[in-house]
Amino acid sequence: MSDRMLQIQLPQGTVFINGLTAVIDLRTFAQVFLDEIYGGLSFRDRVVIDVGAHKGYFAAYALLKGAKATVCYEPEDSNFKALALFSQTIRSDGRVIEIHHEAIGSDGEMDLYVSADSWAHTTVCRQDFIFSKVVRVSSRSLATALSNARERFSEDDFILKIDAEGVESAALLRTPPELFSRVGEIIFEFHSFSGLPLQGVLDRMNSIGFECVGFVKEADLYQLRRQILAQGEA
Q1: For a surface tag, which of 82, 94, 213, 216 has the fewest beta carbons within 10 Å of its beta carbon?
Q2: Given the DSSP bridges, would you call strands 221-226 and 183-189 parallel, antiparallel or unpaired?
Q3: Full-model pTM
Q4: Other CB atoms closer than 10 Å to residue 51's CB: what's the count?
Q5: Exposure b/e, 4-33, CB count within 10 A at least 16 = b
Q6: Is the CB of residue 83 less than 8 Å from the CB of residue 53?
Q7: Structural domains of the chain, count
Q8: What is the per-residue pLDDT across 190-203, written as a single tens digit (0 to 9) for each?
Q9: Angle between helix 77-88 and 57-64 (nearest 10)
Q10: Structural domain boundaries enclosing 67
Q11: Each residue of 95-123: pLDDT tens digit?
Q12: CA distance 112 to 109
């Protein structure tokens, strides 16, 4: 396979498949658009913060389902290239996509462990996995990302999606609770190699008002919803 970009035309724009990582990319696309693993989220007129945006498939899905805007964070070069190409094809109807070539973790810079698999890049040093290289990348904390989104979209509710290979637990545990006040739903993929227990994450988020309302077993996805919303919908 070459690194030629293959295209998939969607109503909101064109997403791209890298020939070198086509098997993984197509599996990721299928999870989002065919399996609809994010189908339980209420996107309409919300701002989506996409941590670990990969090549933009989730962002495209969110916009297709009515999201007002997507704010995407992706640190790896080849994924970000495809994400940027997608952003240039958006068929604008007033909806917005922001893309940031950054990791989420801490403010400044971090090591990114780059994998041959396009969905396995991580800022968590894993002893059980062979990475092709380590590169230094720009990064910001989840607290900073949420603060910036609150300033940029001052009147809107948020969905927070985290699929960033081990970043999720520390980010959710360490971000000040007040920064989640405008987040209506959270969906994250849990990775045990982060070294932080899932139950601790769920307990912390429950203590600040989020109830676990869904689980997608095949993707280790946990969906949380602010409890006042869950009660209002009951």
Answers
A1: 94
A2: antiparallel
A3: 0.93
A4: 24
A5: ebeebebebbbbbbbeebeebbeebbebbb
A6: yes
A7: 1
A8: 999 999 999 999 99
A9: 30
A10: 5-102+142-233
A11: 889 999 999 999 999 999 999 989 899 99
A12: 9
